[in-house]
Amino acid sequence: MEMKMEKLRVGILGATGMVGQRFVTLLSDHPYFQIEVLAASARSAGRTYEEAVGGRWKMDTPMPETVRNMKVMNVSDVESVAGQVDMVFSAVDMTKDEIRKIEEAYAKTETPVVSNNSAHRWTPDVPMVIPEINLSHFDVIPFQRKRLGTTRGFIAVKPNCSIQAYAPALAAWKEYEPYEAVITTYQAISGVGKTFKDWPEMVGNIIPYIGGEEEKSEREPLRILGRLEDGVIVPAKEPVITCQCVRVPVLNGHTAAVFLKMRKHPSKEELIDRLVHFSGYPQEHHLPSAPKQFIQYLEEDNRPQVALDVDYEKGMGVSIGRLREDTVYDWKFIGLAHNTLRGAAGGAVLCAETLVSLGYIARK
């Protein structure tokens, strides 16, 4: 769908951090969005973006010329920022309570907020969406607006980065009734905003703990697979998931090793068929960030590999491989997704594109 539209003016909250930087690179030449405001903490406010970031630019590509000399605004100056934009992307680095408060404050200025943060993922009337999977959860927005007392302002969030490597497979196989999963994720260091330069102790190392990650990895897929009922999202009860999350010496790309039990007994060919043909609204409407093929299946025994597959579909696709029958569980497989593209800023941008296409976000 070709959208002939005047670009929406957007603000990036938390623009100097790693996810904020990723938003900057994704939005600097976007067909729907124009970066109007970069906002960060008080210590960055008033400086140019280049000065505020200093030597902490973490992207592979250079800082876009269009933002170098933009003056950074104070993210807490809600009215001033909101007055200049049609919507904001949120990647602020604050406590959960502070994030909830500031995102709600922006929404109440009639400014839609699409957030990368986890603070609102369990607010019952805030949609947490992977657009290919649970688009219908955006239907909760009118209920949220009623609570907030807004006519156009609302908050939408994208889910945790680690679940992107396996939740799409669970969704693709829903008809076969997966009911139990044991998962281990092998997570890249960029997930915590680091590179090897600023986290040298990760080289040649594995850390078997990522704070809060196991709970998110076990619970968030159930919210995505849940349903809208009486104005709130009710999580699904299955599959029951138990998860371990491990930090590994990889820059980008979260890998998941999954064991799965299903009530129905499809063939391997049927399972692969469901993966490779799984698509949704972003594909049907050719949204700018949408992968043409959401999930690829790789036949080789040694795939997916981070080095070969993390950038599949510009980092917006999911790679699955090594699907085979198991002696204890029914099936096992390996999944891989790019944690800062599909898993973070890219997933949020795709949510925003979807919300624009559906008419939830428009010019003020």
UniProtKB/TrEMBL annotation:
Q: What is its EC number?
A: 1.2.1.11
Which chain positions lie within coiled-coil regions?
Answer: none
NADP as a keyword of this entry, yes or no, is: yes
Recorded superkingdom: Bacteria
Xref: InterPro entries: ASADH-related (IPR051823), Asp_semi-ald_DH_pep-lack (IPR005676), NAD(P)-bd_dom_sf (IPR036291), Semialdehyde_DH_NAD-bd (IPR000534), Semialdhyde_DH_dimer_dom (IPR012280)
Semialdehyde dehydrogenase NAD-binding domain location: 9-141
- What SUPFAM superfamilies is this protein classified in? Glyceraldehyde-3-phosphate dehydrogenase-like, C-terminal domain, NAD(P)-binding Rossmann-fold domains
Pfam families reported in the protein's UniProt record:
Semialdhyde_dh, Semialdhyde_dhC
* Major enzyme class: oxidoreductase
List the Gene Ontology MF annotations in alphabetical order.
aspartate-semialdehyde dehydrogenase activity; NAD binding; NADP binding; protein dimerization activity
Q: Where is the active site?
A: 161, 254
Q: Does the keyword NADP apply?
A: yes
Task: Choose any GO biological process term that the UniProt entry carries and state it.
Answer: methionine biosynthetic process
Q: Which UniProt keywords apply?
A: NADP, Oxidoreductase
Family matches, as NCBIfam families:
asd_EA, PRK08664.1
Q: Which family does it belong to?
A: Belongs to the aspartate-semialdehyde dehydrogenase family.
UniProt name for this protein: Aspartate-semialdehyde dehydrogenase
Q: What is the lineage of its organism?
A: Bacteria, Bacillati, Bacillota, Clostridia, Lachnospirales
Gene from which this protein is expressed? asd
